[in-house]
């Protein structure tokens, strides 16, 4: 698979887990401008990210962004927009998410609202608010077709979104609000793909694997390095043929 070429990228939820690893590996891939967004850049949870930004001034920029707050999204656009050149923004990685660990019987209204605000509505408004910069990148590239080097929206989804996989699992995992919100995120990918096709902005959902993070836990199958290496290889290989699709970190097509 081809490697991702130098680019500008926005990663949400970049302070820990897969988001932090994504920033590290985008740096290794010589991404020229990385906007590492998190909701509390000054907090203890963001120490590792602050260190990265200090080591790579002008390449890694910390951006305050709570995806569940539309005002915070708008504020972040002002900062990122002021730093982006005429070549716009190549890549949005909608990574931030929450997993309220509840079953159908224990879930509350607040759990459902939190899951939808963060996992579906957040990505929607991030895409909408940053769209002018994606369009600028698509225009500036001058390349035909679609690719992540040109302009792309990557929605980090989950196998828990799959209407084929989830009902076939032997035990009922307490993923009720999460699964439903990630299925919603997948539908957002489908709609966005339809509406951004004319702009040649690639849109995709990707399952990162079952990964050892705060969300995945210690029993998960792979580490963040393996997951993100795989995802970046996949990003480098994506074309208009995968536009609007759902794949995993190895490039395999996922069942919706
Ligand atoms: P973590 O729980 O380790 O990290 C979640 C990240 O999302 C944190 O940076 C957190 O920030 C951020 N976040 C949560 N709410 C908000 C918000 N309102 N605004 C901005 N940032 C927010 O999760 P992972 O790294 O494991 O997950 C990354 C992505 O991968 C998610 O989309 C997840 O659904 C998906 N995924 C993960 C799997 C796994 O096995 N780990 C499996 C399948 C999918 P803060 O520190 O402020 O809380």
From TrEMBL:
GO terms for cellular component: cytoplasm. PANTHER family: C-FACTOR (PTHR43544:SF33), SHORT-CHAIN DEHYDROGENASE/REDUCTASE (PTHR43544). Pfam families: adh_short. This is C-factor. Belongs to the short-chain dehydrogenases/reductases (SDR) family. The lineage of its organism: Eukaryota, Metazoa, Chordata, Craniata, Vertebrata. GO terms for molecular function: oxidoreductase activity. It comes from Phoxinus phoxinus (Eurasian minnow).
């Amino acid at each position: 698979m081809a490697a991702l070429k130098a680019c500008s990228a926005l990663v949400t939820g970049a302070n820990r887990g897969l988001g932090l690893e994504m920033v590290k590996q985008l740096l290794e891939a010589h991404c020229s401008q990385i906007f590492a967004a998190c909701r509390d850049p000054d907090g203890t949870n963001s120490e590792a990210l602050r260190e990265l930004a200090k080591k790579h001034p002008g390449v890694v920029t910390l951006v305050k962004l709570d995806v569940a707050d539309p005002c915070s999204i708008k504020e972040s656009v002002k900062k990122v927009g002021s730093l982006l050149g005429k070549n716009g923004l190549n890549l949005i990685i909608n990574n931030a998410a929450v997993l309220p660990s509840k079953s159908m019987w224990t879930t509350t209204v607040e759990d459902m609202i939190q899951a939808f605000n963060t996992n579906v509505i957040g990505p929607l408004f991030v895409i909408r608010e940053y769209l002018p910069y994606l369009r600028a990148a698509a225009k500036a590239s001058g390349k035909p077709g679609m690719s992540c080097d040109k302009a792309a929206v990557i929605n980090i989804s989950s196998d828990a979104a799959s209407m084929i996989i989830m009902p076939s699992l032997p035990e009922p995992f307490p993923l009720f609000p999460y699964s439903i919100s990630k299925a919603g995120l997948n539908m957002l990918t489908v709609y966005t793909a339809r509406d951004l096709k004319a702009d040649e902005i690639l849109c995709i959902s990707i399952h990162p694997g079952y990964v050892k993070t705060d969300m995945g836990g210690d029993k998960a199958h792979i580490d963040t390095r393996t997951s993100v290496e795989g995802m970046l290889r996949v990003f480098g290989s994506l074309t208009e043929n995968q536009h609007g699709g759902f794949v995993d970190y190895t490039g395999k097509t996922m069942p919706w």
